[in-house]
C-alpha cells in the first residue's frame, strides 16, 4: 500500500492532511482565494476596457476633425494601440474592425472608412 502524500491549502499553504478532495484548510481561505481570483479577473477586464476606450477616443477625435482616414504612422503617434479591438469580421476581401462603437478598415499603411456604428451594424 502506497503512502498518501500530504496536501497543502491553496491559499495559505497550511497542511490539510491527505484528503484528495480538500483544497483549503477552512472556508475563510477558500473564500479569500476565490475573491482574489475574481478581483484579478475584474482588474484585467478593466485594463482592457481602458485600452479600448483610449483607442476609441483617438478614432473619435479623427472623426471630429472631419476625417474618415488616417495613416498608420500618424495614428501611432497619437498613441493608438494596434491589435486592441472589441470586434473583427471579414467579408470576402474586406476586414472590418470595431473599437467599441466605432468601426474601421485597415491596410498596411492606413486606417480608413472610420465611422460610428449604426443600428444596422452587427
Task: Describe this entry's structure for a reader.
It contains 2 helices and 7 strands. With 122 residues, it is an alpha+beta fold. Strands 3-7-6-5-4 form a 5-stranded antiparallel beta sheet. The protein has a two-stranded antiparallel ribbon with strand order 1-2. A hairpin with a 2-residue loop joins β5 (94-99) and β6.
Structure in a nutshell:
This protein is an alpha+beta fold and 122 residues long.
Question: Looking across the biggest beta sheet, what order are the strands in?
Answer: 3-7-6-5-4
Structural class, by secondary structure, is alpha+beta
Shape summary: elongated
Radius of gyration, taken over Cα atoms and rounded to an integer in Å: 24 Å
Q: Please provide the ordered H/E string of secondary-structure elements.
A: EEHEHEEEE
Portion in helices? 25-40%
Number of discrete helical segments: 2
Mean model confidence by pLDDT = 92
Share of residues in strands: 15-25%
Task: Lay out the secondary structure.
Elements: E1 7-8, E2 15-17, H1 27-64, E3 70-71, H2 72-77, E4 87-91, E5 94-99, E6 102-106, E7 110-116
Antiparallel strand pairs: 1-2, 3-7, 4-5, 5-6, 6-7
List keywords for this structure.
alpha+beta, two-stranded antiparallel sheet, single chain, 5-stranded antiparallel β-sheet
